[in-house]
Design goal:
Number of strands of chain B: 2
Helix content of chain A: 40-55%
Strand order of the largest sheet of chain A: 1-2
Number of helices of chain A: 3
Number of helices of chain B: 3
Order of helices and strands of chain B: HEHEH
Shape of chain B: elongated
Helix content of chain B: 40-55%
Distance between the termini of chain B: 29 Å
Distance between the termini of chain A: 20 Å
Largest sheet of chain A: 2 strands, antiparallel
Radius of gyration of chain A: 22 Å
Number of domains of chain B: 1
Structural class of chain A: alpha+beta
Order of helices and strands of chain A: HEHEEEH
Low-confidence stretches of chain B: none
Oligomer: heterodimer
Structural class of chain B: mainly alpha
Radius of gyration of chain B: 20 Å
Largest interface: A-B, 42 and 36 residues
Low-confidence stretches of chain A: none
Number of strands of chain A: 4
């Protein structure tokens, strides 16, 4: 049944946005994580989205292909290669010989904005899944 | 034009329309799932094209015996392959994606409303049948 495909597609969106949120939260919590001098500091991560073809049963495969229905998945997590922030804190145990500590390239504001975007997209997918469910339930009302 | 109660043009048209609406629901779900996918283009199921197709190709035209007679055309939804097309004129983001959240939510509402409407009409149709089975008593 084609409404089931719609729910499956929305579920892929929910799952992808949730994973994105997990990555963003990990960036945010590590905003102040430092490493001993000479080792690589924590760098912010971001996700890559890619459109997929939803898994279809034999009956709906042709229909799905004609409609060009695409789900979504996280195709990879990439590391932001921008420079870490150097702060002069000579008393810090992780300071190098000049007194500088390397802080992660995380901007909390940016992460918050991305988190908002992920939340909105999650809500939109949830709404789409609920609408598909309501439509399926409505079909049953024909015979009631 | 088919007559009969369970397999007439209205029933077929409404059935096809429900099918088309559920296809549109799928396409909207697909657009929303890919709202953050770089390069994804907004898709849409066309309703207009199917209407045109049926208007020009009436299955059983009525006979016209005088020039002022007009042939009755029934405008119904066919079950033919849905034309899915990319929507033009939407604002494109720098990553090549042009999914507009508000537009998709509107489509979602429209689809849901249309579906409820047709279901209601089908119920009325069945209630009429039930009425004749019960010899005019509604039940």
């Amino acid at each position: 049944m084609s409404l089931m495909t719609a729910i499956e597609v929305s579920a892929s969106g929910l799952s992808a946005q949730r994973k994105r949120l997990e990555v963003l939260v990990s960036n945010l919590v590590n905003a102040n994580t430092t490493q001993p001098a000479g080792t690589e500091p924590f760098r912010r991560k971001d996700v890559l989205f890619a459109a997929t073809t939803p898994e279809a049963s034999f009956g709906t495969a042709l229909d799905d292909a004609m409609l060009n229905v695409r789900g979504v998945e996280i195709s990879g997590v990439v590391i932001d290669k921008s420079e870490p922030i150097r702060r002069y804190e000579p008393g810090h145990p992780h300071a190098d010989k000049d007194g500088y500590v390397l802080y992660p390239n995380v901007n909390p504001m940016e992460e918050m904005v991305n988190m908002l975007s992920a939340t909105r997209s999650y809500e939109a997918n949830l709404q789409a899944a609920n609408t598909a469910k309501e439509m399926a339930v409505k079909t049953l009302e024909i015979i009631r | 034009m088919k007559v009969g109660f369970l397999n007439d043009d209205t029933m077929q048209g409404m059935g096809n329309y429900l099918g088309r609406l559920s296809q549109r629901q799928q396409v909207v779900a697909s657009n929303l799932a890919n709202i953050d996918t770089p390069g994804y283009r907004t898709q849409e199921v066309s309703f207009h094209a199917t209407m045109q197709e049926l208007l020009t190709d009436s299955p059983a035209p009525m006979r016209t015996t005088r020039p002022e007679h007009q042939a009755m055309t029934t405008v119904l939804f066919g079950a033919s392959a849905p034309p899915v097309f990319e929507v033009n004129g939407l604002t494109q983001r720098p990553d090549g994606n042009n999914v507009d959240l508000d537009r998709e939510m509107l489509k979602l509402g429209e689809t849901s409303f249309g579906y409820s409407m047709i279901v209601q009409l089908l119920r009325v149709k069945f209630r009429t049948l039930a009425s004749s089975i019960n010899e005019g008593r509604m039940g």
